[in-house]
Each structure stands twice: as C-alpha cells, then as structure tokens.
Amino acid sequence: MGVTWSNDAGLTLTAGGKTLEYAAWGPKPSDAPTLVLLHEGLGSVALWRDFPQALVDATGFGVLAYSRAGYGASDPVDLPRPLDYMTREAIETVGDVLDAAGIEHAILLGHSDGATIATIYAGSVSDMRIRSLILMAPHFFTEPMGLAAIKAAGVDYVSGDLREKLGKYHANVDVAFNGWYDAWTNPDFEAWHVGDTIDHLRIPVLAIQGRDDPYGTLAQIEEIETRIYSPVETAILNDCGHAPHLDQRHATMEAIRDFCARLDRIEREPVQIA
Fold it and tell me: What SS3 class is residue 136?
C-alpha cells in the first residue's frame, strides 16, 4: 500500500494524472473490506463530515474518501468540463485510486454524481476488487425538475450565499461549481443517458433514494430495477431530500449496515464442493 491510512489533513495520492486529497478511516485494506466514497457534484472529502467514521462504526469496514480533481484541495481542472465528465472520471481515475490506496476488496459508495460514477465504473471496467455498489441518489438521465433545481442553485451561487458556503470546502470554488453547473445546464446535456451501464453489472447493489429529492425522482431507481441482472435492494426514504446520509441518517446507516453485513457473511461462507 503506497498511502498513509489516516484521516489527517493534507494527505494526497496520485490518480488519473492528478494529485488528489484523500482521507481514510478504520481498518486498512489488508484487514477488512473498504468502502470507497465517491462524492456528489459539489462535494469533497470534508463535506462527508462525520459520515465516514459512522460507516466504520456501523460496518467494521475501512473507509476511503477522496476529492475528485477540481474539488476540495485536489488539483484543478480545465473548464468547461466535457459533458461525459462522469464517464471519464470512472474510466480514467477510479481504478488508479484503488491502486494507489492498495484496495483489495472494495464497495463503491457513491452519492449523486458519485453514485453515477460508481455505476459506470462497475459496469464498464472488469475489476474483481469491486464486490458491490451502494448508490445514494444516483442519476442515469436528466429530468426536467432536476435541471430546474440545478438552475436554481446557479441563482443562489450568484445572488445568495451558496458560493460563500462552498468556499469553505474548495480551494477553487468557481472551478468546483462552474464545472458541475455548466455541464448540467448545457442544452446538449439534456440527452445525456448512461442507463446502459447498469446492464453490465454483475454485483449486488443497494440503492437509496429520498422521496423529496429535488434533483431526481424514483424513476432513477426504477431504471436500476428494470435493467439490472444482479441482486438489488432499495431503500426509499420518506421526508428525505438529495442527501439521505444527512436527511435520514439512521435509516440510511441501518440499510448500509445490514447490506454490508449480509455481503460479508456470504463472502465468509465456505465454498461447498460436490
């Protein structure tokens, strides 16, 4: 393993040709499975707050979180982002992160854009280290209400306090916000659809969605259920918006804990040889 397994500030790894900030909690990859956290479109390591440690406490697994290029304290990116930026992130960077961190047995846990990136990686790259996916508020295609919510965020960024809030978490807040906003509000992005990556999944999936998510409806979860060939579990949460791990912490943690416990139990069962 080429990285320090710690949540100290200032740690970096190299992946996808960029220097990325990361932090790690709990057991090292040699001692337990690792939950690899892929953040939302405006997220970073710091914006996971206390969620990584809560995952360690609930599952006994290790946790690795990193900020994608253009976010947090990671290297910046050139703008505008290409409209297939999530596919590029999956193909060009996720595997390098796993290599750099010495991950041997991974569960990709993604939120929003991160959930989409996790799905694209698992559905596009043959990587036996990926044992399952946990997808919070994933999106595989655009919806009018979601695009409207993103445009409203743009107004808040220019005229409200969103820029100030995000500035606490991103070294270059304009790169972080505009890279996301300009891609999603590009008229050509309305046709974006990556549901076909679900067709190639052959690992268990847990999908978590809030009923009140302004960025996506239950149609995103139905896309998984109707296309997937591997086992899928869903947790549809009432009184929950776009961040299940914040809006409904207990229910979200319970679903993740139970899912991970079943996976771990199944993998530990001895193979029966006839």
Answer: strand
Record the tokens describing residue 30, joined without a space. Answer: 């040699």
Alpha carbons 107 and 39: distance in angstroms, whole number: 14
Distance CA 45, CA 49 (A): 8
Task: Report the alpha-carbon angle 82-89-152, nearest 5.
Answer: 55
Count of other CB atoms within 10 angstroms of residue 201:
21
pLDDT tens string for the chain (274 positions)?
A: 579 999 998 999 999 999 999 999 999 999 999 999 999 999 999 999 999 999 999 999 999 999 999 999 999 999 999 999 999 999 999 999 999 999 999 999 999 999 999 999 999 999 999 999 999 999 999 999 999 999 999 999 999 999 999 999 999 999 999 999 999 999 999 999 999 999 999 999 999 999 999 999 999 999 999 999 999 999 999 999 999 999 999 999 999 999 999 999 888 776 555 5
Cα–Cα–Cα angle for 48, 223, 180, rounded to 5 degrees: 40
Closest CA to 22 of 106, 87, 116, 39: 39
Q: What distance in Å separates the CA atoms of residue 217 and residue 222, rounded to the nearest whole number?
A: 9
Q: How deeply is 143 buried, as exposed, middle or buried, from its count of CB atoms within 10 A (0-12, 13-18, 19+)?
A: middle
Type of residue found at 138:
P
| Interatomic CA distance for residues 144 and 133, integer angstroms | 27
Number of alpha carbons in the 13 Å side-chain half-sphere of residue 98: 25
Q: Is residue 89 within 8 Å of 17, Cβ to Cβ? A: no
CA–CA separation, 262 vs 274, rounded Å? 24
**Residue 172, C-beta contacts closer than 8 angstroms, at least 6 positions apart:** 70, 76
Q: CB count, 10 Å around CB of 250?
A: 7
